[in-house]
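Session log. Operator J.P. requested a structure for one protein chain; no other inputs attached. Running the standard single-chain path with C-alpha cell output.
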Amino acid sequence: MTTEPESTVEEHSLLLDDQLCFALYAASRAVTARYRTLLDELGLTYPQYLVMLVLWDRGATSVRDIGTALQLESSTLSPLIKRLETAGLVIRRRRPDDERSVVVALTDAGRALRDRARRVPPAMADAMGLTPEQHRTAKALLRRLTVNVTGTG
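Structure written below.
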C-alpha cells in the first residue's frame, strides 16, 4: 500500500520563499557559476565538462548513449561535441556497421585533460560545504525527485 505525502499549507503557498522549484533553481545557478570559474581554466563550459565526464568514464561512446546519460537531446548535444572536436579534445566517427550511429572518442589531449580536471570535484565539495552524508542524501533526494517528476525508473 502506497501512501501519498501529506500536503501542508506551505507546500501550496504562492510565496517565492516557499517554492521548492525556486530553491532548486537558485542552487543550480550558484553551483553552475562556481563550476564556471573552475572550468574556465580547463577551457570547458559546464555542459562540455559533463560530456567529458561521460567519455572519461566510458571511453568511446555513441552520441545517443551520451545523450541518454546526460538527459540531453541530440540537437543540444551535437553542437557541444562539435566544439569539443574543434578544441581537439574528441573525435567523431561513424560506426562502420551502422552509418547512422556516431561514436565520440577522446583524443590524447582529451585524455590528458582528465588529470587537470581531477581537482574540480574536491574544489566543488569544499565550495558546497556538505558533509559526506549530506552530499549522499542530497544526491539521493534529487535523483528521487527527477524520477518522480519524469516518471522514469
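Operator note: Strands lie at 61-62, 90-95, 98-106.
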